[in-house]
Amino acid sequence: MLMEKAAVAFNSENLQIHVIHYTRLTERRAHMERALREHGLNRFPVHWMTAHDREEVLEGGAYERGEWGDPKAIAAGSISLILKHLEVYRAVVANPHAWHLILEDDVLIRPGFLPALSACLAALPTTWELCFVGLGCNLHVPWWLRRPEKHIYWRGWKRGFLWGGGGCSRCTEAYLIHPRYAERILASRFAAPPFDRPIDWHLNAAGNAFKVQSYWAEPPLITQGAFESWMNDKHLNPPRP
């Protein structure tokens, strides 16, 4: 596969953007459409992942019965998010010759994003599997490991290895996944319920099992938190009786 060598010269065929979106939060779609335009990302194919909304997870009582996961351990919204990411992975596998950038719908994109992304991807080795370009939970590569003009750092998979965090992930607001790793996850137990942890910790567990080749961008190219969580909206998330 020649993807890693050629894709830094972005075009509409080799860069695909996937936006994880909860359809009831219409202001987030407007926010993301505006952000994509402002940073020139709207000239690439943008795929909106709107399947598997929280209401679908709750439908039929499977969540209450624990078939999706223990309701005491994981929220229906978290299961929805896992299913949306897994659905994106299926699209990634179907288009193996492109870079696939996954964004959640509340991100803030930093100026100069595309040139910075190009520099990061050019620095990735051919063995990469995950590349986190977001700031997730304010996690950084430690200052003593950073080097001038270096954009990408190997993180690996171990919890607490070299620096903090729960493993390979840096939250899931902004990352790239290699098609071969997406396929690996989809063929594993990590693609099927029951689920017992949110998507970032789910990826950490998968990464540890597979000894994933995970990389972090430093400085990060994207931050999170354009909106308060929908969990604070009592109409979308009514209290349980």
What does this structure look like?
The protein has seven helices and nine strands, in the order H-E-H-E-H-H-E-E-H-E-E-E-H-H-E-E. The longest helix is centred in the middle third of the chain and has 19 residues, at 76-94. It has one domain: Alpha-Beta Complex (Spore Coat Polysaccharide Biosynthesis Protein SpsA, Chain A), CATH 3.90.550. Strand 1 (15-20), helix 2 (26-38) and strand 2 (46-49) form a beta-alpha-beta unit. A seven-stranded mixed β-sheet has the order 2-1-3-7-5-8-6. Helix 4 (76-94) packs across helix 6. The protein is α/β, with parallel strands linked by helices and 241 residues long. The chain is globular and about 55 Å long.
The overall strand count is 9
CATH hierarchy, class = Alpha Beta
The biggest beta sheet reads: 7 strands, mixed
State the helix count.
7
* Average of per-residue pLDDT values: 90
Low-confidence stretches: 1-7
Predict the CATH topology: Spore Coat Polysaccharide Biosynthesis Protein SpsA, Chain A
Query: Number of domains in the coordinates?
Result: 1
Task: Please give the order of strands in the largest beta sheet.
Answer: 2-1-3-7-5-8-6
Helix content: 25-40%
Question: What is the overall silhouette?
Answer: globular
Could you give the order of the helices and strands? HEHEHHEEHEEEHHEE
Name of the CATH architecture: Alpha-Beta Complex
Based on secondary structure, the structural category is: alpha/beta
Beta-strand proportion: 5-15%
The radius of gyration is 17 Å
Organism: Prosthecobacter fluviatilis
Protein name: Glycosyltransferase family 25 protein
Domain Glycosyl transferase family: 16-126
InterPro entries: Glyco_trans_25 (IPR002654)
